[in-house]
Write a structure and sequence with these properties.
Elements (H helix, E strand, L loop, with lengths): L3 H36 L5 H12 L2 H11 L3 H26 L1 H20 L10 H21 L39 H41 L52 E6 L6 E4 H6 L3 E8 L10 E10 H7 L13 E6 L4 E5 H4 L6 E6 L2 E2 L9 E3 L13 E7 L7 H4 L11 E6 L9 E10 L5 E8 L5 E2 L1 E2 L9 E9 L2 E11 L22 E6 L1
Length: 552
């Protein structure tokens, strides 16, 4: 018969030990989050370890994650880290049941790994190790204490009764109970169980409280940054963008708006915590090779400079053929080339010693851009506004870089704080260190937005439509074909500028059956996008987008 006391001695004691591990992990995370609120959010263990995981992940796995999870990849990463942490906590809890000191030491070792990850992050300092170490000490203490409650006192071995005769045997009646063997685990007394439940409840409540308090402290520390953005009133541009021509938006169902709303604009970066930068305290430093006069600019000074407004389409190098990581916005900012010339910078074609402009963000990201491209006359910007409002925090507030015609990873540094002039031979930026190309002009691409893959349109006239882009070269022609048939010219929407995408439509007399639709674009230089299918790594995807539909 399985008595309650027996359950607690075997199954229950093991389950309680596992709970000890989970509670120790929760206490460690809560304490670390609270400590990180006083250091910086990027120093929190989940964030620093997550960043290290991103850095160490092989490129094919990163590409798979972006394709599979899209902009939710960071959420999936956090869930994955928490899952692994929970499994580690369960194992350590079971270990501590019999080896308390070893279990506590394992927690401390895990905290040291977290501290090392924090110290290794871009922009990290000695203080970044504190949250992980604090969490490790708290977690180890909680595990040691809770496991101690479950550890039974050594059981006394009853003495065997003296023999009474050579022929006498031990009693075997139904009411006789054999003595407890030395290796059996004695049941937990009721008082001990109550003590464990009380202690576990207190730890859980304290962990949750520490985590909530950490969030509250972080929110209070971020409040000035939020207030600084809310109080900004962007001035009218000195050079406004020309009105979008009539006909730039085709108004066809299935194609998105010409301007992508800020809330829908794609976000691909490595920041697990979006920086909250106070515009009143923000500074931009410009220095390096060929800088005659280093500059330090603040936000108010940028607002006083000549502001230009431009429509620019931005897309991510991770975008697969036909992918969603592209958006178009109206940006407000200062010409980057003007600021560089003020500092005495000359492009290489004019004898300047630097051919790379390294942009650094507040969280340590580095992005390298060709100086020649920045200063060749295109509207490279220090952007302050996006679609009529200050930059959202997710998109780089207070200031980000934009260079039309280049993929974001070599041009579009968010949360910008430093610009250094150097050479490509002297320094590899973050993504170049991981195998991506130093230089990456946007490749000519097109996408079918309607009909959707596997759609079942009715036979007859069907609008096949989408967008095409070739920033800084413009889109000259878009063609569509059905089932490897002849290419047919699509009707292009009116062009806003060569730096924006362009909508297109082709009216198809659809016949019943299964069909494959394919699109290609030709840019302003006469270059037609290739049919060769290549993945985004190392300098952007190539190939032609196609969809399969069944006409009914």
């Amino acid at each position: 018969m399985f008595h309650v006391s027996t359950g607690w001695s075997r199954v229950g004691r093991g389950a309680a030990a596992a709970v000890c591990g989970l509670l120790a992990a929760a206490a460690a995370l809560g304490a670390a989050e609270l400590a990180a609120a006083f250091v910086r959010p990027e120093a929190a263990p989940l964030t620093s370890v997550g960043g290290a995981v991103i850095d160490a992940t092989p490129q094919p796995v990163k590409d798979w994650a972006i394709r599979t999870f899209g902009t939710d990849d960071k959420l999936v990463l956090r869930i994955g880290i928490l899952t692994l942490l929970a499994l580690f906590a369960l194992a350590v809890g079971l270990l501590a049941r019999r080896h308390r000191r070893t279990g506590a030491a394992a927690v401390l070792a895990f905290g040291v790994l977290g501290a090392a990850a924090a110290l290794g992050r871009p922009g990290g300092g000695p203080g970044d190790a504190v949250p992980s170490l604090v969490g490790a000490v708290v977690g180890a203490g909680v595990l040691y204490g809770l496991a101690g409650i479950l550890t039974p006192a050594p059981a006394a071995v009853p003495e065997a009764p003296p023999p009474t005769g050579p022929h006498e045997t031990p009693p075997t009646g139904p009411h006789d109970t054999p003595p407890t063997a030395p290796h059996d685990t004695p049941p937990l007394p009721a008082a001990t169980r109550r003590r464990f439940v009380t202690a576990a409840t207190a730890v859980a409540a304290a962990s949750a409280g520490a985590g909530l308090l950490g969030r509250e402290v972080a929110d209070r520390r971020n409040a000035p940054a939020v207030a600084s953005r809310r109080e900004i009133r962007l001035p009218a541009p000195d050079s406004p963008a020309p009105p979008v021509p009539r006909g730039a938006q085709l108004g066809i169902k299935g194609i998105g708006p010409f301007f992508t709303p800020n809330r829908d604009f794609y976000r691909v970066d490595t920041a697990l915590v979006v920086p909250r930068v106070n515009a009143d305290r923000w500074r931009l430093r410009i220095h390096g090779d060929g800088v005659r006069e280093p500059l330090t600019l603040d936000y108010a000074e940028l607002l006083r400079r000549e502001l230009i407004e431009r429509d620019i389409t931005l897309n991510c190098v991770s975008n697969e053929v036909g992918g969603p990581y592209i958006g178009n916005a109206r940006w407000l900012g200062v010409r980057l080339a003007d600021v560089l010339r003020e500092a005495g910078v000359r492009p290489p074609s004019q004898g300047g010693p630097a051919d790379q402009l390294v942009a650094r963000s507040v969280e340590g990201m580095t992005i390298g851009t060709p100086v020649e491209t920045v200063m060749d006359g295109r509207d490279a910007l220090l952007a302050l506004g996006m679609n009529g409002e200050p930059l959202p925090f997710d998109h780089g507030f207070p200031v980000r870089m934009l260079v039309p015609g280049l993929y974001g990873y070599v041009s579009a540094c968010k949360w910008l704080t430093d610009l250094e002039l150097t050479t490509f031979s002297a320094y590899d930026a973050y993504w170049v260190q991981r195998g991506w190309a130093e230089r990456a002009p946007v490749k000519t691409q097109s996408r079918i937005d309607t009909p959707k893959p596997f759609a079942r349109p009715a036979a007859g006239r069907v609008a096949v439509a989408g967008v095409a882009w070739a920033q800084h070269r413009g889109v000259e022609r878009v063609e569509v074909r059905v089932d490897d048939g002849p290419w047919r010219a699509a009707r292009l929407a009116a062009e806003d500028t060569s730096d924006t995408w362009r909508q297109w439509v082709w009216e198809w007399d659809a016949t019943p059956g299964r069909h494959t639709l394919q699109v290609r674009a030709t840019d302003g230089t006469g270059d037609t996008q290739t049919a060769d299918r290549v993945s985004p790594f190392p300098d952007g995807a190539t190939g032609r987008h196609s969809v399969v539909v069944t006409v009914t």
